[in-house]
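Quick note —
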Amino acid sequence: MSTQQKLALLVAIMMIAISCAKNNNEAAQPKDVVELVPLDNEISGWSRSSAMRIAENETQLYDLIDGEAPTYTTRGFKKCAFQDYTDTTAIIELKLRIFDQTDTANAKLVYDYLEQPGSIPWTGDNAGVEARYVMVGFSYTLDFWDDRFYVNINISDNTQAGLDVAKLFALNISAAIRDTTQ
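Predicted structure written out below.
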């Protein structure tokens, strides 16, 4: 192989390496909580029933949830998105809250802090790194953490079908968090 051919091969290898590095950097861009919120009928039969509420700083978070805000602001709060949904009958409501807590340690701290008495671990096919659910009155609350995100889902249906819907939302969001192609 001539020197010129070796040089051409070296340049080609460098171009491939640069292209791969560029693609890896593009895939590694941080996700935004808004991107994680399911669209209308992304979960079949469930549509948004209100405008999305977003907080990008402590003041906005206090405006949304007032007394709950310190739970998040003292544990790395960066941004959150809240979205409400109803089923096709418009009777059952699901409330979704996704918090970006800056890093995995803070997301886990929020998850641990917010454990409710009687929570049941969701293991095996669960969303996130850790997940759990609890029935309170006529609703289920399911929460999990994954990467730097803490997610809370409440559905006004205390049946197994209601819990299954909450789990479907959770799995959808967890998959979006882990999707590196976006």
